Structure formats: C-alpha cells, structure tokens
Q: What sequence folds into this?
C-alpha cells in the first residue's frame, strides 16, 4: 500500500523558516517524480514544486522561487521542502504527492500545516 | 484566480446525476490529459479520474470523465451523501510559470 506521511508543520513568524519532510513507503520511491502541493485554509489547490527521480531537475511555482528548496533522499525514501523567508500568504496545508505521469498526482499524503503569523 | 475555471458549487438529490465542468485553454486542457480529484471534508485530495477518462483501481464506475477541446467534464451518477466533497480538475500547462495547474474547485452538495 502506497503511503506518504508528512511532518514538520508549525507556527512561525514572517521571515522565518520551516522544513517539511515526507516519508514514502509501499513503492519504489526512486522511480518517481515527487511533488509538493499546498492549499490555503478554505481555498483551492496550488502546485508548489516538483523534483525528478534523481533530484537533477526541480521546478517551482514563481511565488516560491528563491525561497523554497525541494530535495529528496532516495536512500531514506524521503522528500523535503525547505521553506525560507516565509510570508503570511504561505500559510497552508502542504501535501506531498507522487507524480505518476506528466499530468497526474496519483497518491497524496495527509498534509501538514504551516502557519505564518506574527 | 485559478488557471482552470470550475463552477463554485453544484447540487443534486441522492440518486441523481451531476456534471462538473472545467474550462481551460490550448496551453493546458487543449493539449494535455486532465485529472479529477475528490477532497472529502477534512481529508487530502484523492485521484478520481486520470488521462481524461480513466479510473484508478477502486473508483466506482459512477464516476466518469470526458474532454472536448479546451474543456473537461466530470460526471457522477447515482449520487450518494458520501459523494459530498470538493472536486478539482488539474493538468499540465505548457506556458505558465506554474507548470501544474488546478481549477478553483467545485463543492458538491447532495441534497
């Protein structure tokens, strides 16, 4: 059974940092692109970042470029999102998702909440 | 403002059929497969339809998808109260700074 479990959420002040982790199980992690997708409370879904199987390619939505870093450790079956210079508008649930094809996120974690507030 | 346009809400009675539309452009829906996701209250999104009209294992055939031009449609027949959820369409976009785009979501109410 495919499982994705996020951790690392919390409350921080604007300008501070947070690091999310996502631990995968039930599939060969190193065979898949992985993604982070976020959802502000009561709002819709927004893709944040993707990373290739070997970590050699990374893509970000414009609003987080230069502030967020996606990475992975295939030996640990883990995906990470380092979020720096956080803003109030980054407040959201962050979901780890497996990318099964160009257009498909086929499995999602339960999400972890980042709250950025003074 | 989402790249893909969905109606904010739809409603229908139990047992009835409902459709949810998703409108885009040639840079997204027009040239790429569409997915649909179901998000039950308080839970993570779940893949419902992929490649326009395919259902993952375990998704009942009450759920169907179609695409025509730059629009896609999710259909749900035999509505059940357990289908009350937010539904999102999503696809790849060839042109924007956000390569993967979603609709704003449609809240389905089963009356």
A:
């Amino acid at each position: 059974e495919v499982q994705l479990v996020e951790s690392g959420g919390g409350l921080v002040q604007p300008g501070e940092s947070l690091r999310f982790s996502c631990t995968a199980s039930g599939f060969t992690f190193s065979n898949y692109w992985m993604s982070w997708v976020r959802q502000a409370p009561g709002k819709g879904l927004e893709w944040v970042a993707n990373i290739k199987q070997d970590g050699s390619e990374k893509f970000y939505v414009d609003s987080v470029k230069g502030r967020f870093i996606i990475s992975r450790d295939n030996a640990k079956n883990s995906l990470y999102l380092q979020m720096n210079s956080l803003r109030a508008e980054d407040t959201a649930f962050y979901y780890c998702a497996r990318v099964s094809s160009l257009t498909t996120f086929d499995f999602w974690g339960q999400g972890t909440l980042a709250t950025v507030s003074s | 403002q989402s790249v893909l346009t969905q109606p904010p809400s739809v409603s229908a009675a139990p047992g009835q059929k409902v459709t949810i539309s998703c409108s885009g452009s040639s840079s997204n829906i027009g040239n790429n497969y569409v997915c649909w996701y179901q998000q039950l209250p308080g839970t993570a999104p779940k893949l419902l339809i992929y490649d326009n009209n395919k259902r993952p294992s375990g998704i009942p055939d009450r759920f169907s998808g179609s695409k025509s031009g730059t629009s896609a449609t999710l259909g749900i027949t035999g509505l059940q109260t357990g289908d009350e959820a937010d539904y999102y369409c999503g696809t790849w976009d060839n042109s924007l700074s956000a390569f993967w785009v979603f609709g704003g979501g449609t809240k389905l109410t089963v009356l």
